[in-house]
Design a protein that fits this description.
Elements lengths: L3 H5 L2 H21 L19 E3 L10 E5 L2 E8 L2 E8 L13 E8 L11 E7 L4 E7 L4 E8 L5 E20 L5 E2 L4 E2 L2 E2 L16 E2 L3 E5 L3 E7 L6 H8 L16 E8 L3 E11 L2 E10 L3 E14 L3 H9 L7 H18 L1 E4 L8 H17 L49 E2 H8 L12 H21 L10 E2 L7 H4 L25 H17 L7 H23 L14 E3 L3 E3 L3 H16 L7 H13 L5 E4 L2 E4 L8 E2 L23 H10 L3 E2 L1 H5 L8 H4 L7 H7 L3 H12 L30 H15 E2 L2 H4 L2 E3 L9 E7 L3 E8 L2 E8 L7 E2 L4
Helix pairs in contact: 6-18, 6-19, 7-19, 8-11, 10-11, 10-12, 11-12, 12-13, 17-18, 17-19, 18-19
Length: 843
């Protein structure tokens, strides 16, 4: 680390540098492309959906998302300064916590952005066509245009500034992780809120540290920053020991060992100045400051990132320099515009085009596009998009969380800083809603990071089975870390570092102890991707088999322990004990039964090169032994029961009794006994149990219907059952402009329209937006009837909403249509031979 004295000791060297850079920078300015919008006529419809602000922001909660590839930024202008957080997929530290790459602050002189926002013209715009943010400011002293964007195919962020008058700039890299700090344990109502971001360490009684980053000036015009994980204190290693897996540790995929992530901030017309201290929100930070060498009308700097698991920091530094090809800025910008153009041309949903932002349908259509943009910012991540904020979390001080979750009051920068998020694990029940909408939007290439998570960690989940129960297959539980193992919190830390119930083979949390159904849902998602695209899924076949194998071998083992038999009296598998989501506990949960049925069916339909005839004989036998879905009588009619036993009280507000509708499509339009599903919605809801009421869960006569926010799937299920009016009601709640709470009637709005949440999860709530996207798609297009051959359009579409859409269906099919004034004006189905499968009862 360099002091001010060491930076400025030789004025002569600085003068020489200025003279040299004068020549170089003049040539640089001549070569630079002026910031422009890259207007594409074919995407002109997107202009109506650009988010434009005409005033500065109060704080980071009023930031605007920007990104691409696997990088996300929160961008805002506050008190005359331009700021943005940087986050990247794969920034996973020792504690299995996602960490931001840092914060950038830009100041200009003369400054076109006054501190109080007065006497200036200001605009900040998210331009969807290019994935970039444009900021313009005009004062009596200067006018400036700024473009902030990231390359989709390379880990490089660009900042381009173009001003009327020669100006100077200051660029600061700000870090709150400049020293190692302990993360204190504070438990309120049984939850260790201080450690929520490093969720596996909750209720761990040992010391937990937030380790410092390394930050320094390099070559006078560059800031180097990186985090090198401390291999002597990795939570994953503790989990391996906790679960008695030390003997196979060398065979496991290790997510955090030797992981180094960071990058450089660099600009040709910048020079290192000093290191300063300050505070933002409640978090102290240090700033490494660069300043322009020459006054200029144009400035450019970039941030290049690199993440790698490698032993040597020198090797990492060498590979950092090679992380991006030597493209000119103009070439990189052209590549970016092409990628975003192709992305937006894949699919779209445009509702009530001419009615504008005050119309509910228009808002739903606009916010569908905005949320699809957010998902695209981690299109090619090393790790999946996190349901609880993705790459766009901001300072937790500005997040108003649930009233019944009291976050720790003794805020400390070691944990309650911009890296903080609630539920900092891979909660599978929530993750799935991030990825389902990518099938019909045609973004199946973006589903790979989630599928690769399971492929990468398959050895870990298989070896845990062998060690724990000596059974084959894989067991990915509900709350898992980046290595695919249960978190220490849910598995239970043993003394002296926590408490564990020895009677439970997995977990101390009642809702998760025997909850393995969601791994089957992700497997089914892969089957569906194959049905839609015919893509090569050979790399995922072992996972598809192992999730089914586990459930049969594990539950046969439990049945043998109970009565010495493999099956029940009818020769069927007994799925007990089991969880119907987190809401019920009992035998043969209907969501799990439906998941097994669909996955075995999918395996039997795969070509023999992936699933052999011998294997298919076994799966056919298991298909016959899979139990049926449960039913119960409510209000005198047949409804789907969540579990085999009678249950009439709930611990959560999920609807596992309707999982046979979504995601598994056993019931729905074009399927048998649709009335059973509809009656389940009408009469098959249950009430809170006493424990849920004691926790302060929202009151109401039908909590399973009333809880529409967050991960709830009501709108999706209603669309699949053809209940148009109710589907419309719920999708409007889901995808209208965010209130920053669940108070749908409130006039208050979060500044960026699709920063939903927080309620159950965090800000922004990615599975909230994802579930809304799925619902809107299902209202327009369903593909389950007639053994999956039907293309059913407008199955739950309100006639008062005009719409233009392009969506994807199985067998590499696209459907485009335009509906005006309650009538279909055109339908284009490609390939044309799929027209014979088209069904519509709209008119």
């Amino acid at each position: 680390m360099r002091s001010n004295v060491s930076i400025m000791t030789n004025k002569f060297s600085v003068i020489i540098k200025i003279l040299t850079l004068t020549v170089l920078f003049t040539a640089y300015l001549c070569a630079c492309e002026k910031p422009d919008n890259g207007v594409s006529k074919s995407l002109a419809w997107l202009d109506d959906y650009n988010v434009i602000w005409d005033s500065q922001s109060k704080n980071s909660s009023e930031s605007m998302p920007c990104g691409g590839g696997d990088i996300g930024m929160n961008v805002w202008v506050e008190n005359g300064d331009i700021l943005f957080y940087v986050d990247r997929s794969g920034n996973i530290d020792e504690n299995d916590q996602q960490r931001k790459s840092g914060r950038i602050r830009i100041q200009m002189n003369p400054n076109p952005f006054s501190k109080d926002g007065k006497d200036v013209s200001f605009e900040q715009k998210l331009d969807l066509k290019t994935g970039a943010i444009f900021i313009t400011g005009k004062s009596k002293d200067n006018m400036v245009s700024i473009r902030i964007w990231t390359e989709v195919k390379h880990p490089v962020i660009h900042v381009d500034l173009d001003s009327d008058k020669p100006s100077e700039i200051k660029v600061a890299y700000e870090s709150w992780r400049h020293k190692t700090q302990i993360i204190p344990r504070t438990t309120e109502k049984g939850r260790d809120y201080n450690r929520w971001a490093s969720y596996g360490y909750c209720n761990y009684e040992g010391d937990v540290y937030s380790y410092a980053d390394s930050i320094s000036f390099q070559d006078d015009n560059t800031i180097l920053f990186y985090h090198q994980n401390n291999n002597d204190d990795l939570v994953f290693d503790k989990l391996v020991s906790l679960m008695r897996m030390d003997t196979v540790s060398d065979k496991l995929a290790h997510p955090t060992k030797n992981r180094i992530f960071g990058g450089i901030v660099k600009g040709d017309n910048l020079i290192a100045r000093n290191i300063s201290k300050d505070s933002y929100s409640i978090t102290p930070f240090k700033a490494w400051n660069l300043e322009s060498v020459l006054l200029a009308k144009e400035h450019h700097f970039n941030i290049q990132l690199h993440t790698e698991q490698v032993e040597s920091i020198d090797t990492w530094k060498t590979n950092l320099k090679r992380a991006a090809p030597a493209l000119s800025r103009a070439e990189a910008w052209k590549q970016n515009k092409t990628w975003w153009g192709d992305f937006w041309n894949r699919s779209y949903i445009i509702i009530n085009k001419d009615k504008g932002p005050e119309d509910a349908g228009w808002q739903v259509g606009r916010n569908y596009q905005l949320f699809r943009y957010i998902l695209a910012c981690n299109a090619y991540g090393e790790w999946p998009t996190r349901f609880n904020g993705g790459l766009f979390t901001y300072d937790p001080e500005y997040v108003k969380f649930n009233s019944y979750f009291d976050l720790a009051k003794n805020h400390a920068p070691a944990y309650y800083n911009p890296d903080y998020r609630a539920w900092g694990a891979w909660t599978a029940q929530n993750q799935r809603l991030v990825y389902w909408p990518m099938l019909k939007s045609g973004d199946t290439d973006m589903m790979r990071p989630q599928f690769d998570y399971y492929k990468r960690n398959l050895p870990n989940a298989k070896y845990r089975n062998v060690v724990a129960w000596n059974v084959n297959g894989c067991s990915f539980s509900e709350q898992i870390g980046s290595g695919g193992l249960p978190t220490g919190y849910h598995y239970g830390w043993e003394a002296p570092y926590g408490k564990r119930n020895p009677k439970m083979e997995v977990g101390i949390a009642y809702q998760h102890t025997y909850y393995y159904a969601t791994q089957l849902e992700f497997a089914y998602m892969i089957h569906e991707m194959y049905r839609f695209t015919g893509a090569d899924i050979s790399e995922y076949i072992p996972f598809l088999k192992d999730v089914v194998i586990f459930h049969f071998e594990y539950h046969k083992l439990l049945q043998q322990r109970r009565n010495g038999e493999n099956w029940d009296e009818n020769g069927k598998l007994v799925l007990s004990p089991g969880h119907a989501c987190e809401t019920y506990r009992g035998t043969n949960p209907s969501n799990l039964v439906a998941a097994l049925q669909r996955n075995i069916e999918g395996l039997l339909q795969l070509p023999n090169k992936w699933v052999s005839e011998k294997e298919k004989e076994l799966f056919k036998d298991w298909q016959e032994r899979t139990p049926g879905i449960n039913y119960r009588i409510r209000n005198g009619v047949k409804t789907i029961a969540p579990v085999k036993e009678e249950r009439d009280k709930i611990t959560n507000a999920e609807l596992p009794q309707l999982y046979p509708v979504f995601p598994f499509g056993i019931y729905g339009l074009g399927q048998p006994e649709l009335d059973v599903a509809i009656n389940t919605w009408k009469y098959g809801m249950d009430r809170w149990n006493d424990g849920a009421i004691a926790r302060g869960m929202p009151s109401g006569p039908t909590p399973q219907k009333d809880n529409w926010w967050g991960w709830s799937q009501h709108a999706i299920m209603l669309a699949r059952m053809g209940l148009t009016d109710e589907a419309q009601e719920y999708v409007v709640k889901k995808l209208s402009d965010s209130r920053g709470s669940i108070d749908f009637e409130s006039e208050k709005r979060i500044r960026f329209p699709v920063f939903y949440g927080p309620r159950y999860d965090w800000m922004p709530d990615i599975n909230w937006g994802g579930s809304g996207m799925i619902a809107l798609q299902e209202m327009l297009l369903q593909t389950l009837g007639n053994k999956g051959k039907d293309i059913r359009i407008l199955p739950a579409w309100p006639k008062e909403w005009d719409v233009e859409f392009k969506l994807h269906a199985p067998e590499n099919t696209t459907i485009e249509s335009k509906i005006r004034n309650g009538r279909i004006e055109n339908i284009i189905v490609l390939p044309e031979e799929r027209k014979k499968d088209l069904i519509t009862n709209f008119e």
